[in-house]
Amino acid sequence: MTAHDIWTPLLTELDRWQAAGKVARFWLRDDDAIEPTPALEKLLELTADAGLPLTLAVIPASTGEALATRLADERHALVALHGWSHTNHAGPDQKKQELGAHRAPDVVLGELRDGFAILQRLFGRRFMPMLVPPWNRISGALIAELPTLDLKVLSVYGAAKADSPIKLLNTHVDIMNWHGIRGGRPHAELVADVVAELRTRFDDDAEPIGILTHHLVHDETAWAFLSNLLTETSAHPAVRWASATSLVES
């Protein structure tokens, strides 16, 4: 199968959307940003060249003025709250979690409050009041308390739940393989996932499709997929890459 053939199912599905007069909404979330790095430069360049909005989930306990200065002129980039320190507090036999029930709620909420203040001070208007839990996991009891911290949106992984007490803006396709080689997933597999998400939304596009990346651990396979995805979709009439703020406000 050639590189072009790999993308044919996606282009065919997008052409179906175009023929029906429909436009699919996409957004891009990248996790674990801390400071300027060559990988971040590559991500910023790719997205800027494609004219594509980017949301960076930033770890407040580890970031600082260097990242704020670097992003100051990147009009296409927004910042979201990525927990506090990306520290696992779950047991050795449990899935990793920072925002779970392993600590007193007041302690966890206090960290989030501090993180919110740090990112708001550093990034100003680039900071949007959206929480991205590390490892995409958070205790249900904490979710109900997020509005008390002035957090307006929660972003995790998977289909949004209709009964959420806070607005959800989720991701649905993670380009990384976390359980095997810890590199980019095969392109044909990722294309199939994107097509599947599109097909579930053809009759009801209530939820935008979120693409999830992690620039600090991308290998060439991951970078190539992201670059190709932007190339194949950014100019297609049936695709609109949207900013997180516009999706939340719509």
UniProtKB/TrEMBL annotation:
It comes from the Bacteria. One of its GO terms (biological process) is carbohydrate metabolic process. Signal peptide: none annotated. InterPro entries: CE4_u4-like, Glyco_hydro/deAcase_b/a-brl. This is Peptidoglycan/xylan/chitin deacetylase (PgdA/CDA1 family). It comes from Rhizobium metallidurans.
